[in-house]
Amino acid sequence: MGSTSSESESPKTIEGRHVLSLLRNGIKAAKKNQAHVLSTNPAGRRTPVRASSYLIPSALYQLRFSLALSVTDSPSTHSRPPPASFARDAFIWFRDSPSCLSSSPSPLLFLLPSPNRSQLELPYPQILTMASSARAMTALSRVGQMAPSSRIATRALSTVSKTSTRPSVAMRLGNSGRIAFRRAYADEAPKPRPGKLRRTLRWTWRFTYLSLGAAVAYTCWVIYDDRHPQEQFQPDPTKKTLVVLGSGWGSVGLLKNLDTENYNVVVVSPRNYFLFTPLLPSCTTGLIEHRSIMEPVRTILRHKRGAVKYYEAEASSVDPDRKVVKIKDNTDGKGPHSVTEIPYDMLVIGVGAENATFGIPGVRENSCFLKEIGDAQLIRKKIMDCVERASFKGQSQAEIDRLMHMVVVGGGPTGVEFAGELRDFFEDDIKKLIPDISHRFRVTLIEALPNVLPSFSKQLIEYTENTLREENIDIKLKTMVKRVTEDFVEAECVGPDGSKQTLRIPYGLLVWATGNAVRPIVRDLMGKVPAQKESRRGLAVNEYLVVQGTRDIWAVGDCAVAGYAPTAQVASQEGTFLARLFNNMAKTEAHETRIKELSSSLNLKQGNSAEVAQEIETLEKQLRRIKDVKPFKYSHQGSLAYIGSEKAVADVPWFNGNIASGGSLTYLFWRSAYLSMCFSTRNRVLVAVDWLKSKAFGRDVSRE
Q1: Which of 11, 53, 82, 154 is surrounded by the fewest CB atoms within 10 Å?
Q2: 282 — phi, psi (to 5°)?
Q3: Distance between CA 188 and CA 191 in Å, rounded?
Q4: Are 687 and 282 contacting, i.e. CB atoms less than 8 angstroms apart?
Q5: What is the b/e burial string over 347-386, where b = at least 16 CB atoms within 10 angstroms of the residue's CB?
Q6: 393-403: per-residue pLDDT in tens?
């Protein structure tokens, strides 16, 4: 009897795993009854929350120490699950001992069923109330005094005291517990986890959005930087004067990479802008506005560290003995002082070349060239002249055929691209606006060589010729122009039997896109330098681009004869090479001056002579490395050409071979490559907008 009485009077205890079991049973009941609790957020708004997604996280959050404890009785009492009345006893235990968790009443008290409460209420601040480890230790001691027969597992107690306050760490809830905790304050039931494909697409879209945001931010920063240039160093009379003639690919390549603070730089050019010539054929048909491919020279020079002086003038002659350049004003309103001389210590000639007519009568008087913006504007005007005259009332059929016949001389990239752009203009725009004469439109491409695009691979040449013929462009190979009049072109070709035949080709527009000739200033300098008298195509230069027969004159671009094709790619690399060469020359001079100063003061500084000697040795090593400049060597980056019908050809080097491709995908590559090669962000944005505008609204067919 005594033993029975002591067993009945002993306090009821419960294991931590039984508490978890009771909580799980409570969750099942909450799901079954669809009970809701109301939680108050910090803003005071009361939001209904499902108990099924709320009970476990909130309870574990408040019981982070208590549930980690192992409160056990004798080994014989915990072999079976506790009765249902233990649930009430457990809640009452926490109600009567609130200090074991926090200074506020335990929220578990409000989870108990009540007849006069249809909804369960959990105050938001009480849920977030946390008890520190020290307070928990004190509370557990008090609980131990209240229940002497209960013993606390020291291992669990030490674990609780060392872990963080997060229930996912202290309780090792695992992934499902963390998900439930994150969704503790959700206003609806948890949604099923999306599939792997959907998650991948979601992260792909997020990465795309971030990339677009970064691109926009970078573009905005570049635009801001362009609009707010930094202060420049003013010219120093003690430094050498570097005069640059021209504003083409070679000159701009030099200016872009030159450290202008090392020299007093002077730029002379009759054209106060840099022109992106690869897209010039697109300007003739209105696909691209001409200002979209122009970059003002003053904008380029303003962003250099050292101030650069610019004169919009034309260099007429160079005196290599006196080291002066004679220039004359190129503006329309010339004043009394329009001719002057500029002295130089170093001179770079990058004036390019002019169009070659090969002495053929009538070419210069009746042809349109394609080298400058003015040429593209003139071609555009003449195209619309031919169209409007052909549509004039009462025009004869023969005259309409002549006016609608466009002839292009030159089968290089410029001629082929212009022929393709011209065909697109008539097929995409003129045919829709003036359908009654558009079927009379014809294009003839004349080339003296056996094939077009001679610098491309053989398979691309065949692909280009087949594509042009599919576009109804007549290709006349091995044909040489002999005479040009206002109405027709007289040419000589080789017939199928090998005999020469004379052709008379009527035309409305003739575009001459072949050959380069030296400019007057280059011809003048060639006559003054004896070593240049045998050169016919331009200024002969050595492997360092120094004009042969001189010591302080360099030449780049189409005016120089360096053994490479006269292309924009060659000129740009030559300018970059000269910039690197001049930068090294300035560093060399600075190092030599410093070495002389240290050597002269070495005997005066006996205390730190070892340090001075070490610095001299370091400077000499750097000087040897700087002086080791290899000669210029052209690196071919590939060739691109547009051939019409949204097709292009590309010859790109790949290791020891080439990748030759053509078609619509190559056309996208052609556009992206030229867009990236535009000089500035402003040019890229304007060109992209012009392409989109023409695609959406068509080309502008107005005359001006």
Answers
A1: 154
A2: -70, -25
A3: 9
A4: no
A5: bbbbbbbbbbbeebebbeebbbbbbbbebbeebbebbbeb
A6: 999 999 999 99
Contacts of 561 (CB under 8 A, 6+ apart): 535, 537, 538, 539, 540, 541
| Cβ–Cβ under 8 Å, residues 679 and 288 | no
Contacts of 489 (CB under 8 A, 6+ apart): 407, 409, 446, 481, 483, 503, 504, 505, 507, 510
Out of 14-28, 255-269, 421-435, 643-657, least confident range: 14-28
Q: Where are the alpha helices (DSSP H) in 479-608?
A: 520-528, 568-600
Confidence band of 25 (pLDDT split at 50, 70, 90): low
Q: Beta strands of 466-537 (E only): which ranges?
A: 473-476, 479-484, 488-494, 500-506, 509-512, 516-517
Q: In sequence order, which residues have a C-beta less than 8 Å from that of residue 174 and are 6 or more positions away?
A: 168
Closest CA to 509 of 394, 426, 392: 426
- The beta strand positions in 372-484, using DSSP E, are 405-409, 442-446, 473-476, 479-484
Which pTM value belongs to this model?
0.72
Residue 327, token pair as written in the block:
């220039």
Mean confidence (pLDDT) of the chain: 78
Taking the C-alpha atoms of residue 21 and residue 27, their distance in angstroms, rounded to an integer, is 10
Q: Are 254 and 575 contacting, i.e. CB atoms less than 8 angstroms apart?
A: yes
Closest CA to 471 of 520, 416, 432: 416
Q: pLDDT-derived band of residue 81, with 50, 70 and 90 as boundaries?
A: very low
Specify whether the CB–CB gap between 185 and 49 falls below 8 A: yes
Round to whole Å and give the CA distance between 580 and 582.
6
Other C-beta atoms lying within 10 Å of the C-beta of residue 569: 18
DSSP strand pairing (509-512 vs 368-369): parallel
> Residues near 66 by Cβ (< 8 Å), separated by ≥ 6?
16, 19, 94, 100, 101
d(CA 249, CA 573): 9
Q: Taking a C-beta distance cutoff of 8 angstroms, is the pair 66, 130 a contact?
A: no
Whose tokens are 């302080």? That residue is 552
Q: Give the pLDDT confidence of 408-423 residue by residue, as tens digits.
A: 999 999 999 999 999 9
CATH class for the region spanning 363-517+637-697 = alpha beta
* φ and ψ at residue 513, rounded to 5 degrees: -130, 55
**Two structure tokens written together for 688:** 């992209």
Q: Which residues pair with 315 in a beta bridge?
A: 327
Helices (H), 171-248: 174-182, 196-227
Sequence-distant (6+) residues with CB within 8 A of 307 are 232, 233, 234, 235, 260
Which two structure tokens, joined as six digits, stand for 167? 């229930």
By the 8 A CB rule, do 568 and 560 touch? no
CATH 3.50.50.100 intervals, the chain: 241-353+518-627, 363-517+637-697
Place of tokens 């001992």: 97
Place of tokens 């206002």: 486
**Per-residue pLDDT reduced to its tens digit, 61-80:** 344 334 333 333 333 333 34
DSSP for 286-337, written as a single string:
TSS-GGGGEEEHHHHHHTSSB-EEEE-EEEEEEETTTTEEEEEE-SSS--S-
